[in-house]
Amino acid sequence: MVLYRKLIPVPFGVALAFVLATVLAIMPAQCDASDYIIGEGDVLKIMVYGHSDLTTVERVSGNGMINFPLLGQLSIAGLAVSEISIRISSLLADGYIVDPQVSVFIEEFRSQKAVIMGEVMKPGLYKLKGRTSFLELVSMAGGLTRDAGDTALVKRKSRRAKGEEEIATIDLVRLIKEGDTSLDVPVLEGDSIYVAKAGLIFVTGEVKRPDAYKYEDNTSIIKAITMAGGFTDKASAGRVKIIRKVDGKEQIVDNVNMDDPVLSGDVIVIPESFF
């Protein structure tokens, strides 16, 4: 018996990919580089309001240093643009200038890299040039696959504890379908991004649209059957069973209650009536 077909009528990933293309088309360019992490090769223009003699353009050296008037050599690699501004302001305020207003601009970006894996069309290592957002990296990777789920994970080096990593979760439904661009986080040097696969449930047998459907929390058996178009005239509604994997082994669950919740990966089988 064939339990499910591979083709999904309206895959969640396809819907997200379509909306993603629309979002990228209408989204304004991201110009704010305040959270960009500076590294070797970046060229910075630093200005101090009211002190044009201190304006300087410097390329970050291999050891992460720049030279700044009055202050000499400064180590700035690994700092965000906003942090560099604060640091220089603090140093200038210590005996040089009263209440200095420092602005830092990136004249030239170095090439950075990040990895994106999982349910994207072209997973792999990508070069970043300038400020690159999550959605832009997904677009660089060819967009989402038809099997993409509603979650992405971003793993990056912690800036608070050396040697440790931080993991953030991105809700793709809120970001892409609902347009909450606050979740379109910048991608940083060394980030690893994983787009999860959608959980599926399978409804087969005597239903009008036997197929695979996206799993959602609190989906009941009867809701899954409704998603599949409901029972056919030949269905034996009282003999519904579930094939479920437990610890890697398939188990058959019968005598089910229609209000029981299903689990991701469940196969709901509706047999034909004997009469």
Please tell me about this protein's structure.
The protein is α+β, with helices and mostly antiparallel strands and 275 residues long. It folds into three domains: 12-30 and 110-197, Outer membrane lipoprotein wza fold like (Roll), CATH 3.10.560.10; 43-108, wza like fold, CATH 3.30.1950; 200-270, Outer membrane lipoprotein wza fold like. Helices cover 17% and strands 33% of the residues. It has helices spanning 12-26, 81-93, 134-140, 172-177, 221-227; strands spanning 43-48, 56-59, 65-68, 72-75, 102-108, 111-118, 124-129, 132-133, 148-157, 165-171, 186-187, 192-197, 200-205, 211-214, 241-246, 249-253, 267-270. Strands 7-6-12-9-10 form a five-stranded mixed sheet. It has a five-stranded mixed sheet with strand order 14-13-17-15-16, covered by helices on one side. A three-stranded antiparallel sheet has the order 2-1-5, with helices on one face. It starts with 11 loop residues before the first helix and ends in a 5-residue tail after the last strand. The relative contact order is 0.15.
